Amino acid sequence: MTLVTGTLVLAGTPIGDIADAPPRLAAELETADIVAAEDTRRLRGLTRALGVHTSGRVVSYFEGNESARTPELVEALVGGARVLLVTDAGMPSVSDPGYRLVAAAVEQDIKVTAVPGPSAVLTALALSGLPVDRFCFEGFLPRKAGERLGRLREVADERRTLVYFEAPHRLDDTLAAMAEVFGADRRAAVCRELTKTYEEVRRGGLGELAEWAKDGVRGEITVVVEGAPEAAPAELDAEELVRRVRVREEAGERRKEAIAAVAAEAGLPKREVFDAVVAAKNAERG
User: Fold this and answer.
1) What are the two backbone dihedrals, phi and then psi, of residue 84, each rounded to the nearest 5 degrees?
2) What is the pLDDT of residues 230-256, one digit of tens each?
């Protein structure tokens, strides 16, 4: 006999403008057996704004009780309940409560689905004006200065665009640390109060942005930082160029192919590598 379990629904909520609420959100709020909310007061404000009423049980699910409440919610899911998880803004589980519950539900083979909604990460990335083809989300940096610098140094050579969340009262310190590790000229964008009345996107070098943030910045902050530039090819002397060509020849490559490959590796014209090989051969004969 197949065991019928419930469904865990992760619902995205507006990051600012209530008009951005996904159409399915209202229906899920009205019909869920249990609504697990990061802040039940914020949930009441959301339901009032949407003009809906929750018919199911409402429970709090935040960082402080996430570990303790997860087993209770999993038990309800195993019993067939439809559990709706909402956080204060954005998508549950992304720098917000939810990961533990999703992992526990998956382990019990419980269906997990989502009501897609607004994302500060993608919104800031799109507005930044920086490359969007490849990016990585780093969440919040550590509060302590030494740990923050250590985390930044781990990604100092990361080529992908970086996205961070940050508290407004730590923004100036964070931007200063980024300028120290990544370089003051590395391009970045500070996205503030996205989709809200006082939305602002400030673009510039990290050093310039760090100076701007010294005066104090308010609101919800997302920082987007350009990835590290491609490292310039290492400069190789003639002896090393010849050595690399010989290694390739000994491996079976024809000299012409070996010279072309080494030239590409070193970022040099093929003629320069060819001349080094010829000069070495003449020196051996002489």
Assistant:
1) -105, 125
2) 766 667 889 999 999 998 888 888 999
pLDDT in tens, 83-95: 999 999 999 998 8
Buried b (16+ CB within 10 A) or exposed e, 54-80: bebebbbbbeeebeebbeebbebbbee
Sequence-ordered alpha helix ranges (H) in the chain: 23-31, 40-50, 66-78, 99-107, 120-128, 145-154, 171-182, 206-213, 238-250, 255-266, 270-285
| Burial class for 237, CB neighbours closer than 10 Å (0-12, 13-18, 19+) | exposed
> pTM of the entire structure?
0.77
Separation between Cα atoms, residue 82 and residue 88, nearest integer Å: 20
**Euclidean distance between CA atoms 107 and 114, whole angstroms:** 17
Q: In whole angstroms, give the CA distance from residue 166 to residue 132.
A: 20
Q: What sign for the dihedral angle of Cα 22, 195, 8, 102?
A: positive
135-140 and 221-225 as β-strands: parallel, antiparallel, unpaired? Answer: unpaired
pLDDT at res. 96: 86
In the numeric block, the tokens 């508290």 are attached to 167
Closest CA to 80 of 26, 35, 113, 34: 34
Residue 89 burial (CB count, 10 A): 21
Q: How confident is the model at residue 1 (pLDDT cuts 50, 70, 90)?
A: very low
d(CA 51, CA 30): 10
